[in-house]
Amino acid sequence: MIESADIREWRTRDVVDPDGRRIGSLESVYVDTGTDQPAFATVTVGLPTRHRLVFVPLAGTVVGPNYVRVAHAKAKVKDGPSIGTDDVLPAEDEPALFAYFGLEYLPPADGVRVLARR
Predict the structure, then answer these.
(1) How confident is the model at residue 1 (pLDDT cuts 50, 70, 90)?
(2) Which residues have a Cβ under 8 Å from the Cβ of 98 and sit 6 or more positions away?
(3) Which of 17, 22, 70, 89 is the most buried (most CB within 10 A)?
(4) For residue 10, what pLDDT is reported?
(5) Which residues are in the PRC-barrel domain (predicted)?
């Protein structure tokens, strides 16, 4: 289990795919609002003048001395849902994010969002 306190220390580390290919730099973490456990990370990708943030699930993540290795291929992550560098994932976009990675989306009964940026 990844602890929220630990993952905040990973900010700006390289995020790599299972084959060690660099995807980008870890920017922030989204936690599950029901458990407060890290669920997704945003990764800064793009050209120096045109950055964007892409999402990647944190399940199966391995942390090394200078990297965070995620369980999804670089192409899958880079082609996935993204937001601007100053944006936050809108609640109405959460189901599509989960679907893109083949994850089950269980909206909370009280209507609160599933993911929150930390």
Answers:
(1) very low
(2) 104, 105, 114
(3) 70
(4) 81
(5) 7-71
26 close to 11: Cβ distance less than 8 angstroms: yes
Give Cβ neighbours of residue 116 (< 8 Å, ≥ 6 apart). Answer: 30, 31, 33
Which pTM does this prediction carry?
A: 0.89
Which H/E stretch holds residue 34?
A: none
Q: Which long-range contacts (CB under 8 A, 24 or more apart) does 67-70 make?
A: 67/13, 67/14, 67/15, 67/16, 68/10, 68/13, 68/14, 68/15, 68/16, 68/26, 68/41, 69/15, 69/16, 69/17, 69/18, 69/20, 70/15, 70/16, 70/17, 70/18, 70/23, 70/41
